[in-house]
TrEMBL record:
<feature type="signal peptide">
    <location>
        <begin position="1"/>
        <end position="19"/>
    </location>
</feature>
<keyword id="KW-0812">Transmembrane</keyword>
<dbReference type="InterPro" id="IPR006373">
    <property type="entry name" value="VSA_Rifin"/>
</dbReference>
<keyword id="KW-0472">Membrane</keyword>
<feature type="transmembrane region" description="Helical">
    <location>
        <begin position="289"/>
        <end position="311"/>
    </location>
</feature>
<keyword id="KW-1133">Transmembrane helix</keyword>
<dbReference type="Pfam" id="PF02009">
    <property type="entry name" value="RIFIN"/>
</dbReference>
<keyword id="KW-0732">Signal</keyword>
<protein>
    <recommendedName>
        <fullName>Surface antigen</fullName>
    </recommendedName>
</protein>
Amino acid sequence: MKIHYINILLFALPLNILVRNQRNHRKSILSTTKSELTKTHRTLCECELYAPSKYENDPEMKEVMENFDRQTSERFRKYDERIQDKRKQFKEQCEKDIQKIILKDKIEKQLSQQFSKLQTNIETNDIPTCICEKSVAEKVEKTCLKCGEILGTVVPELGLIGGTVIYASAQSAAVKVGVSKAIELMKDIYFLGQVPFFDLVAKITPSNFNDKMSLIGIVHDASYTVCETTNAQDTLTFCFSKYSIGRTNPSKFLSVTANQAKDAAEAAGEAATGTFSEMTSVGAIFSDALVISAIVVVIIAVIILIIYLILRYRRKKKMKKKLQYIKLLEE
């Protein structure tokens, strides 16, 4: 037991020495070999401090100084340019802000002056009816719109009426020409038009002037009613021709008159068709006063529509500017 106490006391002495010794903090446990490093550069302590002429004439130092001056001047120049650009932008922005503030103050001042003129004590019964004054452009625009609506509804009806009138007039004129042509040719059948007791004009109507069987029936009716019931074979050429031809060949008179009536019907139909085609041609239609007036109305409607579109575009453009101005004031 005494041996252990002695060992403990002896161990405390070297431990205290190791702790209190300051050199031990700088020494490493491992032993390192000391080796001197070779210097590749020159330190300031090795330079001659009191030899300025030699320092300035050193080519390496001159090159270093020139590079430094050049880089420094370039950076300062770029910095100045950047500062000038920023100052210019800030100046423009400041001018815009100042103008906005001045404009806003001016408008507020005008509004305050106008509102100050109004009477604050206004009763409900004293409030007048608001009559909004419209600009000349808006009035013209609405007038053009109304005219366009009216013409837009009238022009198609006018075109329809014009086409119907032209077709009806052409058809009526064609029928008249066909009837007159049929009467003219029927009168030449053995002088049928000279028969006194037979009204040929009344029997040829617009419904049968181009019908072959109807005209043949009229000729046969005339030969029976006039020549058979009366003794007119000596006084009328039509009846005399019937009896003179019928003596040799009784059916020849009927066939000849039927062919002549057939030719009359065909000629009347061709005359009516030609008249109708002539009246409904392009030249005849555009020479009609009603068609010309319809074309003029259409042109006027198109011009009014163009004016309306132009005025509408200008009004929208002005409204857009006003909205932008109001938005700027609100900001």
